[in-house]
Amino acid sequence: MTRLAWLYALLLAFAAAWLGWGIAQGGRLQTDLTALLPADAQVDAVWRAADEAGEKQLNGQILLLVGSEDADRAFAAAEQVADRWQNSGLFAAVDSRLNPDLAQLRQEIRRLGVNALPREQQQLLLHDPAAYFQQRAEDAANPFAAQIVPLEDDWLGFARFVQQKQPSGRLQWHSSNGMMYSEQDGITWVWLRARLPEKAATDQAERLLPLLADSRAQAERGGYRLLAAGGALFTAEAKTQSERESGLMSAIGLSLTFALLLAVFRSPRVFALVLPLGAGMLLGAAAVVGAFGQIHILTVVIGTSLVGMLVDFPLHWLTPSVFSPDWAAKEAMRRVLPAFLAGLGITATGYLLLAFTPLPVLRQTAVFSVAALGGA
Q: Hey, is 292 helix, strand or coil?
């Protein structure tokens, strides 16, 4: 190998190591659509910080609803789901029960005193105390009446009306198991909350969606229903889908390109063209990560359009070998090299003009394209 070949091999090795290290660190693939806006159209730093804080809080929580027509079955299934998600190692905590400080709650209710009474009960106590205490005695003697505060601590009965002053809602607290639930259309829904750690794992998206799919499959087998919502789920699904679509587009482009080349050259040696193609893509991605710290998913998608152009130069070099039996590689390269350099310069100049646009994705495309063309 010549010195230039060794330098090129070292450059590829360095680019592969650099890109691999960046991927291992995480956060190198950008999927935020607001990152596509020009710098002068970006949101104010204070608003962005507030938006990121709110988004982080929302994306850090996943709400789960476990439902069944049998209430006992719903509570038991919810406990199983909570244990499974907690043991997955993905979450900082999975909240399934709410255990309020009843002693403090009762103390605060006692402090309310007569203020806890509705207006009509206040008027009744003021103008007809006998009727009020008659009603109080009947409620105290009723074994099925709910007693928030014990009788000896609330003999006047003021605490009975605290719940009436609470805002009406469907969400209820089960005093026996401490779970939050609601009822709708004959189905008891138990509410769970899964909280992700502040620093998400690099494989969070890869593990979160399979966990949800497995939980839904177990719910179907167990005869109950499972619903889930949360920003982390939407983010993981969007990331997985974008990576899948990008890979699909690249695979289709490569397949069609090499199918055409195989039909023309009729030799499996044509697949050696994957080497300059892979080298170009590697250097393009490494250059973008090195220049911008990350690469947007749209840059990767746009970069797939370079597949045909990256194999264009080696095709011009190798095509004469099909028609000329005395074709020599070095001599052929010397003949086409001036045209290659001129074509590379013109094409790279066109892509470099994108670097002067205000859109970050176009600037990334400029760096990616120039590095990929030069590397190929």
A: helix
Alpha-carbon span 174 to 125, nearest angstrom: 32
Structural domains of the chain, ranges and CATH numbers in brackets: 3-51+236-375 (1.20.1640.10), 62-97+177-229 (3.30.70.600), 102-165 (no CATH)
Q: What is the pLDDT of residue 226?
A: 92
Helices 329-352 + 360-375 axis angle, to 10: 170
d(CA 322, CA 7): 31
Neighbouring CB atoms inside 10 A of 38's CB total 11
What does the pLDDT read at residue 275? Answer: 79
Contact 360, 36 (CB under 8 A): yes
pLDDT score at 189:
92
% of the chain residues with pLDDT over 90? 3
Q: Are strands 187-195 and 61-68 parallel, antiparallel or unpaired?
A: antiparallel
Interatomic CA distance for residues 305 and 295, integer angstroms: 16
CB 283 within 8 A of CB 375: yes
pTM for the whole structure: 0.53
DSSP state of 128: -
**Rounded Cα gap, residues 150 and 156, in angstroms:** 11
Residue 277 CB coordination number (10 Å): 21
- Report angle CA 31, 36, 38 to the nearest 5 degrees: 155
Instruction: Enter the tokens of residue 342.
Output: 């001129």
* pLDDT tens column, 201-229: 555 667 788 888 899 999 899 889 999 88
What residue type is assigned to position 323 of the chain? Answer: F
Strand partners, 183: 188
- Residue 336's φ and ψ, nearest 5 degrees, are -95, -10
Rounded Cα–Cα distance for residues 178 and 175 (Å)? 5
Task: Work out the number of other CB atoms within 10 angstroms of the CB of residue 140.
Answer: 16
Q: How far apart are CA 15 and CA 281, in angstroms?
A: 10
Report the alpha-carbon distance of residue 212 to residue 225 in Å, rounded.
Answer: 12
| Beta strands in 250-299, from DSSP E residues, in sequence order | 295-296
Which two three-digit tokens encode residue 166? 């609470």
